[in-house]
């Protein structure tokens, strides 16, 4: 006899890193499940973001799934920062190796998820009318999957081609010999610009704010290094899980404040800069996150590098950010600043003026017109809350998740939302800021253990107490407050506080207390017997919850 009349124990939405990791977890726990994916293949962000130059900013050895020892056999990345194509293929090999593909329905975008208090089940409905019921709902819809729509009224009059980086066509886009504009100089724009510059006739970059771009220093991983990485797989992932941002890097234990000697400071920053990528902020001085003066030292160092690389002093100065380093997520560049030395690359500073599109291209408020054959939008995402706010998710009393989140975002450790029983968030708001595959692994492991507990105790529903949510909100604020960029993140329109989307509630969207502290919190919850939760046993049919902890 089935324990409930649902179609599945669990439904997962999305087949990127977090969706795939969830499918594996559910199967290990002996549950029935189904996954719906809007794309035609697995990958999530790594399926859609096939724009020129797309590759990871985290190193290959930590940007990986690791739920089973056999994964290292499939680990065949060939570059320090794997390309979009490699990451997507890796995920494809994983779902095939572990026979997870058969559970995924592709080309199926979910439109709504409604909770029924009487049946204690979720009904998940797709755009094509398919509807299924389940006990546990696991949206694995990604923290950066809903692109900001181009907010330019003139777009409808523009007669040239235009593309959104996050939804780049699967067929080749021929940019050769064309006059191309790109709007946006975050991590996405920074990857596209040097990649397409050699092909196009003229590339015009519309920059509202500059980024602090760290040199990626990508390289090919040869067989010897592959061997070494595979041998050290477990140790590397252990190191990543013990790093505040989920990377296999070691905090230096040094501070700019203690160093005092300017030459020593420069030497250390040189070493981080030469190592490439995120080593610059994580392995040089620990206090650049918390001390304004130290942060300014690291910021000015990057500005000096920009001035040294870019030949035209005026262009160099326009590329130099003035806000504190780390107020926005720094991108990894691959000869990004060097691209501005090309005669066919032009930088237009739009920090003090608006732009709009017109029939032939882009017009600034000062009246200058630029004609283009192609315009590329790389203007960012509605981070953390975007995908779930877009989905019509309704919990107890028909309350809308997106509606709630337009005013205030409450969760328990980014896993549960009060009033939305059996909804397990994955990689939504309030997870640690850092390398997402590592964060996903920790989070999904906790969700798996929680579901296993419910199954074992025959509990129909889990909801989180308001006190636990309030404690978590306080912890989010406390840990963010100590960073040097708590205020400047808002002023510089950073997505990790929601400030990049006009009208969005501005609050810290990620946990800055670090991966180890996050893991410890989740482990404490389990070892103490889920004290932050209210459960409803399967026998209760009127939907009124009571605490079964201690019954
Ligand atoms: P982003 O960092 O939010 O950058 C968006 C850019 O568009 C900014 O330069 C922004 O300027 C500009 N912009 C937005 N609205 C505009 C407007 N109305 N007019 C003119 N300019 C406008 O977005 P992103 O580059 O897509 O990156 C988002 C995140 O995705 C990254 O931080 C990263 O975490 C992730 N990502 C990762 C990778 C990777 O790992 N390889 C690659 C790409 C993206 P303002 O700053 O002035 O608002």
Automatic annotation (TrEMBL):
UniProt keyword annotations, A-Z: FAD, Flavoprotein, NADP, Oxidoreductase
This protein's name: FAD/NAD(P)-binding domain-containing protein
Top-level taxon in the UniProt lineage: Eukaryota
Keyword NADP on entry: yes
Family annotation (InterPro entries): FAD-binding_Monooxygenases (IPR050775), FAD/NAD-bd_sf (IPR036188), Flavin_mOase-like (IPR020946)
Pfam families in UniProt: FMO-like
GO molecular function: flavin adenine dinucleotide binding; N,N-dimethylaniline monooxygenase activity; NADP binding
PANTHER family recorded: DUAL-FUNCTIONAL MONOOXYGENASE_METHYLTRANSFERASE PSOF (PTHR43098:SF5), L-ORNITHINE N(5)-MONOOXYGENASE-RELATED (PTHR43098)
Species this chain originates from: Talaromyces rugulosus
SUPFAM superfamilies attached to this UniProt entry: FAD/NAD(P)-binding domain (SSF51905)
């Amino acid at each position: 006899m089935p324990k409930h009349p649902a179609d599945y124990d669990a439904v997962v939405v999305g087949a990127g890193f977090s969706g795939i990791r969830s499918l594996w977890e559910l199967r290990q726990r002996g549950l029935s499940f189904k996954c719906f994916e809007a794309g035609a293949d697995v990958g999530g962000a790594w399926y859609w973001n096939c724009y020129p130059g797309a590759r990871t900013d985290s190193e290959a050895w930590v940007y990986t799934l690791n739920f089973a020892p056999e994964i290292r056999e499939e680990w065949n990345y060939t570059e320090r920062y794997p390309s979009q194509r490699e990451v997507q293929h890796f995920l494809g090999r994983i779902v095939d190796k572990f026979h997870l593909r058969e559970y995924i329905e592709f080309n199926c975008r979910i439109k709504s998820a409604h909770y029924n208090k009487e049946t204690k089940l979720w009904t998940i409905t797709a755009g094509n009318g398919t509807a299924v019921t389940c006990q546990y709902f696991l949206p694995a819809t990604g923290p950066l999957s809903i692109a900001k729509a181009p907010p330019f009224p003139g777009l409808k009059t523009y007669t040239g081609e235009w593309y959104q980086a996050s939804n780049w066509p699967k067929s080749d886009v021929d940019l050769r010999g064309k006059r191309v504009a790109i709007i946006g100089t975050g991590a996405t724009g920074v990857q596209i610009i040097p990649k397409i510059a050699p092909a196009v006739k003229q590339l015009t970059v519309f920059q509202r704010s500059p980024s602090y771009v760290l040199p990626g220093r990508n390289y090919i991983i040869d067989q010897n290094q592959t061997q070494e990485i595979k041998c050290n797989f477990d140790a590397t992932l252990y190191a990543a899980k013990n790093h505040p941002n989920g990377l296999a890097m070691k905090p230096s234990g040094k501070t700019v404040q203690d160093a005092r000697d300017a030459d020593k400071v420069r030497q250390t920053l040189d070493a981080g800069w030469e190592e490439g990528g995120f080593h610059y902020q994580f392995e040089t001085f620990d206090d650049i996150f918390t001390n304004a003066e130290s942060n300014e030292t690291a910021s000015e160092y990057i500005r000096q590098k920009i001035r040294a690389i870019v030949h035209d002093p005026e262009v160099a100065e326009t590329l130099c950010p003035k806000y504190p380093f780390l107020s926005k997520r720094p991108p990894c560049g691959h000869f990004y600043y060097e691209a501005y030395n090309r005669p066919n690359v032009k930088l237009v500073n739009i920090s003090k003026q608006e732009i709009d599109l017109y029939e032939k291209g882009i017009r600034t408020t000062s009246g200058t017109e630029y004609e283009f054959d192609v315009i590329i939008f790389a203007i960012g995402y509605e981070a953390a809350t975007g995908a779930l706010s877009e989905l019509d998710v309704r919990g107890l009393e028909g309350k809308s998740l997106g509606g709630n989140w337009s005013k205030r975002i409450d969760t328990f450790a980014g896993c549960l939302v009060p009033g939305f029983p059996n909804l397990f968030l994955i990689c939504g708001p309030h997870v640690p800021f850092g390398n997402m595959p590592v964060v996903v692994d920790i989070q999904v492991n906790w969700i798996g253990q929680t579901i296993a507990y419910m199954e074992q105790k025959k509990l129909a529903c889990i909801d989180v107490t308001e006190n636990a949510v309030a404690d978590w909100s306080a912890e989010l604020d406390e840990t963010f407050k100590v960073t040097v960029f708590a205020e400047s993140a808002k002023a510089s329109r950073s997505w990790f506080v929601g400030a990049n989307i006009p009208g969005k509630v501005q609050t810290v969207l990620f946990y800055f207390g670090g991966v180890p502290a996050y893991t410890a919190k989740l482990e404490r919850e389990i070892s103490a017997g889920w004290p932050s939760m209210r459960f409803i046993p399967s026998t209760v049919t009127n939907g009124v919850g009571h605490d079964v902890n201690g019954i």
